[in-house]
Amino acid sequence: MSAAPPAPKIEAMPLGRKLRYWLETAGFFLIIGFFRLFSIDRASAIGGWIGRKLVAPTGLSRRAVENLTAAFPEKSEAEIAAILDGMWDNLGRVMGEYAHLDNIHWAGASPRIEMEGHEHYEAAKARGKGIIFISGHFANWETMPIAARERGIQGGQVYRPTNNPYVNRWLYKLRTRNGLPEMISKGAAGTRRIFTILRKSDSILMMVDQRASEGIPAPFFGRDVMTTPVPAALALKLGAVILPVSNERIGGARFRIRAYPVIETPNTGDPDRDLLECTEAINAFIEQCVRAQPSQWLWIHKRWDAKGAPLRKRAQALAPMRGGANNAASKRV
Description:
Blueprint: H1 15-35, H2 40-55, H3 61-71, H4 77-98, E1 113-116, H5 118-125, E2 131-135, H6 143-150, E3 155-159, H7 165-178, E4 182-185, H8 188-199, E5 203-207, E6 216-220, E7 223-227, H9 230-238, E8 241-249, E9 255-259, H10 271-292, H11 310-322, H12 324-332
Parallel strand pairs: 1-9, 2-5, 2-8, 3-4, 3-5
Antiparallel strand pairs: 6-7, 8-9
């Protein structure tokens, strides 16, 4: 694996926007500095308290309540409130743990990450193909690439840059220092890089639980949601292996990461059907993880907002997977 590229450059921008980003960044680093005054466990606990007591009562909870009520119509208001409370506790803890991410490890004298399902990883690796790890924003999702790196896995992780370029630069450096060595931004250039990595039989980590505006409709909690078809398309095109992974907070700033059996790619002879069935299987895994630990998922995300014409979007998403995009990527590899 080649050395990780340098942190993203900060492009020129209007002065007003720059000042706004500077103020946001100053606030962000004040928060990080505050949490660094404490131990990992204390910072995590304080972050959880802030999430439950100070953030949860704000309007930020509105979408989470709507999503939870739609996903779990059988649950009472008290049960929904308990999940919501746990979600804000978890998100607050994640913020506190960002200040200590350099000290969260799977290996070493003081491990904070447990790993299970090694046999599934070894079985996937034995196939001799690239591996696509798929997961979601569970517990502290930043711990998964840390564990992968310390396990000796080579490759990269797909990410969406934050809107604030100064915060994004800090996060980029933090992630490449602790996680998989290469950060791959979403987009055409990122897709070409993923092709290169998988063709070398290295690995890619993708979070696939968020809405993809250019995705395809696939069921999630009984409703179609716009879902990225990229993992399925890569597996079908390259023969790469899809390995699902979950993450669970098991107390304070400690985590359990578990690998599961490979999601097998269908081969019906119909490329559209194969892509959809594989994507549906990925969504089913994510839903299974969310149902197991609902308070440790990101319910504030606009996951069920599927605007536009789904069938047209599905056609648009499928077309490049079968032709031009793959061919263009292949020419660059």
